[in-house]
Design goal:
The complex is a heterodimer of chains A (203) and B (137).
Chain A: H1 2-13, H2 15-22, H3 27-43, H4 52-60, H5 78-97, H6 109-118, H7 130-133, H8 141-161, H9 165-174, H10 178-202
Helix pairs in contact in A: 9-10
Chain B: H1 2-19, H2 25-32, H3 38-59, H4 80-96, H5 100-108, H6 114-131
The chains are: A mainly alpha (203), B mainly alpha (137).
Chain lengths: 203, 137
């Protein structure tokens, strides 16, 4: 048993073995791991859905005094807040311990070209565009407005549609729910409108 | 004990979201431009296993880790709320380049402006709560 532990830790100490963790994970690893996450939650007796946490946190902040939509037993949703907290910790671990520095995303050369044309010079050189997500933007009111409006649309749309990517595109479609299919078609209509028609106006 | 379970599942999910690059604004843009298979591969393979797994759970009446029956609650039947809500969500997803899961993940990864997106998402949820009765569902 001890020998096995030494063997495994020895393997991990070799950089060769660690490379696959430090490099971006391919889709055929990531997709199954997302399904695995959903099944873990199902076997914990819960459902996979990230945006409902927003409603829970609104209620915790006292929104139930303004609208009865927030008047529910949010304490029953504490488990999902723990998943949320875990996701924050997971993001920290992945960025600072499981990624190469700088963390870049190998998007296609066409995408890089299109983004350069829109003024995103950081395409292909960063994990998120520095034009939108570096701390410099805190002194750029217009960029902050773009992020805020993006957030408002996400929060409003997710609750109106009764779920987001995790709740509809993964959980709902896995259970062959027609409403989730309608929602996912809506996600794509909205996304395509934004990227193809509104981006040239905004950026 | 269960609490730790949920926390660990969240940590696992956060790492997967980040390492898969599903939390990258660039990948979302690329997806909506149909310039890479990456995001479609992620969602497609997750769904392929998801559909099979859910069927197996239902057919075999599998129980949860705690021995309880597993219930899949069907979504309420409707069109407008899913279509209109979906379109609004999609506009935001493409603009901010993040859906709710990655918002939390990116906050942990230290991309502080994502907190503005988070504040917006809270505000958007609150606005929905105020307007809910006036919207077609």
């Amino acid at each position: 048993m001890l020998q096995a532990v030494f063997l495994i830790s020895g393997l991990f100490a070799q950089k060769k073995t660690m490379n696959w963790i430090l490099e971006p994970w391919p889709w055929y690893v990531s997709g199954p791991l997302i399904a695995f996450t959903m099944f873990l939650l199902i076997f914990m007796g819960r459902q996979f859905g990230m945006s409902s946490n927003l409603r829970t946190m609104c209620s915790m902040c006292g929104a139930d005094k303004k609208a009865d939509f927030f008047n529910f037993d949010w304490r029953a949703q504490q488990w999902n807040l723990l998943v949320l907290l875990g996701a924050v910790i997971g993001g920290f671990i992945a960025q600072f311990y499981l990624s190469e520095d700088p963390t870049t995303v190998a998007i296609s050369s066409e995408t890089i070209q299109d983004l350069n044309n829109l003024g995103f010079e950081s395409a292909g050189k960063a994990y998120l565009p520095t034009e939108l997500f570096s701390t410099n933007v805190f002194s750029e009111p217009l960029t902050l407005l773009v992020l805020l409006i993006g957030g408002i649309l996400i929060g409003f749309g997710a609750r109106y549609a009764g779920g987001c990517t995790s709740g509809h595109a993964i959980s709902g479609l896995s259970n062959l729910q027609l409403p989730s299919l309608i929602a996912v078609i809506g996600f794509f209509i909205g996304g395509l409108l934004m990227i193809h028609f509104l981006y040239p106006l905004i950026f | 004990m269960r609490q730790i379970g949920f926390l660990v599942i969240g940590i696992f999910f956060g790492i997967v979201m980040f390492k898969s690059e599903a939390a990258s604004w660039f990948r979302i843009y690329e997806m909506f431009k149909f310039q890479s298979f990456h995001m479609y591969g992620i969602i497609g393979s997750a769904l392929f296993l998801g559909v099979i797994g859910v069927q197996v759970i239902k057919k075999k009446n599998l129980k949860s880790f705690f021995g309880q029956p597993i219930n899949f609650v069907p979504k309420d039947k409707s069109f407008s709320r899913y279509m209109f809500g979906g379109i609004i969500f999609g506009l935001g997803w493409a603009l901010a380049g993040a859906c709710p899961g990655p918002i939390y993940v990116l906050a942990g990864a230290g991309y502080w402006p994502i907190l503005v997106v988070f504040a917006g998402a809270m505000l958007g949820t609150f606005i929905y709560g105020l307007l809910r009765k006036k919207l077609p569902h």
